[in-house]
Design brief:
The protein is mainly alpha-helical. It folds into 2 domains: about 45 residues; about 150 residues, Orthogonal Bundle (Lysozyme). The protein is about 65% helix and about 0% strand. The chain has 8 helices and no strands. It is globular and about 65 Å long.
Length: about 210
């Protein structure tokens, strides 16, 4: 009887050891799901989209832009993270490229291009990003869908925007003409967010 009980105890201990890796695996899987869910929630719902609001307003007004449009672009580009870095080397709030918007700003403004570390500063990033967006908007002045075309240019370049422009300048929506799916979704998401910010502004004024 003592021998049987001893053998039974050993079997139970062995069984517990066999199941231990599975328990750890399940715990790690649950932890991973919780962490992933938190990151998704933080990305989409936990964003403080009032960050840098005063600086956004000042930069937007300097370049003749609606601050709510600039906010919508920042929401899409960086989720208001001034330290964000894109896959192609885009930097900061408005995800500006040293060889793109920064170089164009430097050439037209006849000023030295800021070093890369300065592009993370919100005031520098907003100045160059708003300059670049305002220039794109002026390029499509006269089109009812000028904002959408400017966003195409901001995301995919002027040549592609030129290909996607409507033949009729009075056409209100040209997003179906955008042949790059990511750019089409980019423009639509910013326009939707822009409309939301404008509605919030109108309600606050009432």
């Amino acid at each position: 009887m003592m021998l049987n009980r001893s053998m039974s105890g050993r079997r139970k201990r062995h069984s517990g050891r066999r199941h231990a890796p599975m328990r750890w695996f399940l715990l790690l899987a649950v932890a991973g799901l919780l962490a992933g869910g938190w990151m998704i929630w933080r990305m989409w719902f936990g964003i403080n989209d009032r960050l840098y609001y005063t600086q956004i307003v000042h930069a937007a007004h300097r370049h003749g832009l609606d601050p709510e449009l600039v906010r919508a672009v920042i929401w899409r580009e960086s989720r208001f993270d001034s330290r964000a870095v894109g896959k192609a080397g885009e930097i900061g709030l408005m995800q500006i490229l040293p060889g793109g918007a920064v170089a164009e700003w430097s050439r037209i403004m006849r000023r030295p291009a800021p070093p890369e570390w300065q592009l993370f500063r919100p005031e520098v990033n907003l100045e160059i990003g708003c300059f670049y967006l305002a220039r794109a908007l002026r390029r499509w002045d006269g089109y009812r869908c000028a904002t959408e075309l400017a966003l195409c240019q901001y995301n995919a370049g002027e040549r592609r925007a030129q290909r996607w422009r409507p033949e009729n300048p009075q056409e209100a929506d040209m997003t179906d003409r955008i042949t790059i799916r990511s750019t089409r979704e980019y423009v639509r998401s910013i326009m939707k967010r822009y409309q939301r910010y404008r509605q919030e502004r109108e309600r606050s004024r009432q």
